[in-house]
Amino acid sequence: MSIKGAAYIVGAFEHPGRVLPDISASQIHAECAFGALADAGLSVSDVDGYLVSGEAPGGVTAMADYLGLSVRYIDTTDIGGSSYVSEVAHAAQAIAAGKCSVALVTMGGRPRSGARRAVPATAPTTPFEAPYGHSNPASYALAARRHMYEFGTTSEQLAAVKVAASKHAVHNEFAFLQREVTIEEVVESPLIADPLHRLDCCVVTDGGGALVVVSPEVYRRLDRSGAKIMGAGEAIKHTAGGALDLTYTGAVWSGPAAFAEAGVTPADIDVVSIYDSFTITVIQTLEDLGFCAKGEGGRFVMDGALHAPFGALPFNTDGGSLCNNHPANRGGMTRTIEAVRQLRGEAHPAVQVADCELALVHGTGGWLATRMGSATMILSNEDG
Amino acid sequence: MGVEQAMERFPIVEVTAEPELEPYWSAAREGRLVLARCSVCGATPWMPRPFCSTHPRAVVEWIETGGRATIYSWTTVMKGEGVFKDSSPYVLAVVELEDGPRILTNVVTGDDEHLCIGQPVSAVFDHRAAGGSILRFITDDARTGTPLAGAQHGN
């Protein structure tokens, strides 16, 4: 069963906060839920499906209780920052199967003001990874160095990704890093885990977001434009029993699945929203999704290709996780929200892509050096 | 610099040695690196596990390796997190065992030693944690304590 055209994102809300010491993560979820429902013109009583991921305080039962939801479809997919991209697709599947007609997806967290996510101590991988200081930047640095070694990718090419995000963040009044940076600034910023510098990393912020996914029947009743779900794919890439290859991500599987379901190709895409935990994540993902050949990502991002609105492939037009925000250390939600803005024509005028008809959203959840969830979704502005 | 002294740059991280991996942890306590090998296809997966995903009914043998490997990728972590907060800088790496799997690990280096992809390293065990001995790898330079003449630049 295809989900092409089976559902629409008709409510989207991004929490404006970036430093939120005075409200709980649960309250962030609630504010985002009500924001997205108001955007859609719906209320809590309309919701019959609820999807959250691992960062939701107390899990889906506690959050449904807190929000006052009565639902008949639930999903708690946890593939890190890619969860929310996956969950929108799962909501579409559930809607296509008649399991619900108004699905709510919420996320929120406070890694800036509160505790960062802890790694569970009971995974089979723990004794073989926890003793080594496998931090997020270090994991992505291992992938970056191997990519440099195999393909000649440079620090300046990585930096060009940050520069593109920063040019967009200038127009986002809520962006945590609302300042244009140069390639020189990125490569001269302190090394965190070589070859990655501080400015190759995303920002650390509080915040959250929510989405409302509805059936075509509900969508037609509402007085709000949305984003039609055209296709989606998901995958897990892992250490493969020791045959680990650090030069690609799970997008090599999730991407083609999404394109096939949507019946489009990379050349058809008008704007991309790619979870940009680090600059290397974007370069590898662009290659894996087929926007350029493997190994060409570094050269592809130079010379303004990612700059909105006129670049060859405008990317992360809100500033992305590299500059805008990174609530709960998970970027998939806010990537999806910005894609919806672009398709509605509601992005900032300075970065709004003209005649934006097709957007691609991609999330990477986990670690490039070990294992990750990958989720790709293609959205359209078609109303029919 | 002795291997034991070199290990002190890393924090002691307690691990839980699960019972089904007892052959691995017993060998590690003795400073030996063993892999679980499928008796049908010869696969030696990492992390070790007492089964072959392709041949779940096959006998798995624990075989000893020489512990020689080459660096597949590496990073010098300047900002450690959690229990590694005060351990920076340290080297996180993926190494490839000779005829074997790629392994996430630390590499113990000599003072000011530059690493490069393809550089040979060998297995050493850190015996300080009570729950199990931790596998790391060491460069030839660090093992012998001799500065590496004409150190190569990193990739």
Please provide a written account of the structure.
Chain A: InterPro entries: Thiolase, Thiolase-like, Thiolase_C_2. Chain A: Residues 237-380 form the Thiolase C-terminal domain. The complex is a heterodimer of chains A (384) and B (155). Chain A has 384 residues and is an alpha/beta fold. Chain A contains 12 helices and 11 strands. Chain A has 2 domains: 8-111 and 206-226, Thiolase/Chalcone synthase (Peroxisomal Thiolase, Chain A, domain 1, 3-Layer(aba) Sandwich), CATH 3.40.47.10; 129-204 and 231-379, Thiolase/Chalcone synthase (Peroxisomal Thiolase, Chain A, domain 1), CATH 3.40.47. Chain A has helices spanning 25-40, 59-67, 83-96, 136-151, 155-169, 183-188, 216-221, 251-262, 279-288, 297-300, 320-324, 332-344, and strands spanning 8-14, 49-51, 73-75, 102-109, 191-193, 196-197, 207-214, 227-237, 271-274, 358-366, 372-380. In chain A, helix 5 (155-169) crosses helix 9 (279-288). In chain A, 62% of the residues are buried. The mean pLDDT of chain A is 96. Chain B has 155 residues and is mostly beta strands. Chain B has one domain. Chain B has helices at 3-7, 22-29, 140-144; strands at residues 34-38, 60-64, 68-77, 90-97, 102-108, 120-126, 134-139. A 5-stranded mixed beta barrel of chain B has the order 3-4-5-7-6. Chain B has a two-stranded antiparallel sheet with strand order 1-2. The chains are: A alpha/beta (384), B mainly beta (155). Chains A and B meet through helix 4 and strand 5 of A and strand 3, strand 4 and strand 5 of B.
